[in-house]
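Appendix B. One record, verbatim.
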Amino acid sequence: MRVRIHLGTKEIGGTCIELMSDGARLLLDLGWPLDGDPDDLGAHSAIERLEGGGDLLGLVLSHGHVDHWGLAPLAGPDLPVALGSATLQILQAAAPFVPRPYVPARPVEFTSGTALQFGPFRVTPHLVDHSAYDAHAIEVEAGGKRLFYSGDIRGHGRKAGLFEKLVSHPPNDVDVMLMEGSSFGRLDPDLAFPTETEVEQRLVELFGEIKGLALVAAPEALTAAGKSRLRFLGKGPQFLGASFESRRVDAFRRDSRVDRVHPNDRGFLEYRVGQSVDERQQLLAMRSATQAES
């Protein structure tokens, strides 16, 4: 197995990795850099026969952030695109609201720990902790070699246990590891980034000092932030959900890995097991009530 890194080594985002084995090719992510221009095709490394149907067997997306799929629309509709089931639902929900929507024409949905086969490539996704819901690291076996691509990964979020699990039980016999490292060197060795729990506690303190209405606009709060980011305090802020957010709630409400998202009696969203409430209608009702009160 041979590896060619097209993008992502000198900038944040824009990751694209090409694998070759036994006359076949596979792409891991196809993003544009956060500070790049997607219309400037000359700035992107050429990927041969991107339309699919030849020796390029597929594209595997680690997660739904645009710096990992932003150039995917350049691929032809015949190219199979493997991605998490919830990631596909989120891309579908986002399509009416973003200037450059993308929904793969030939999606291949995967779940963590279940292998897919693309010709000589055996692909196994591993669920990881990242601000994008349904983010995965990717393990690829081909030609007697094994590659592990971390995708975007962190250890300080609500799903930090996934990071610890990966470290404690990593894939065996990895020959090459490609790892995201956009935060390397940003802090002194004796410092650390705050965890999401610590950030939440600080918000509790800040909102406790506020008199009157406090508004929260945090799209990721409904996804990877987990079970209680919006559960701040009794008199706390009102959450205003946009139409896209209500659709995204629907997307991961249908994901069997999570509990139901349900508004509690203080106007925040929390997770509860076994609720049969239509969360989107509840969210829209919360927004209408808040607008009426204001």
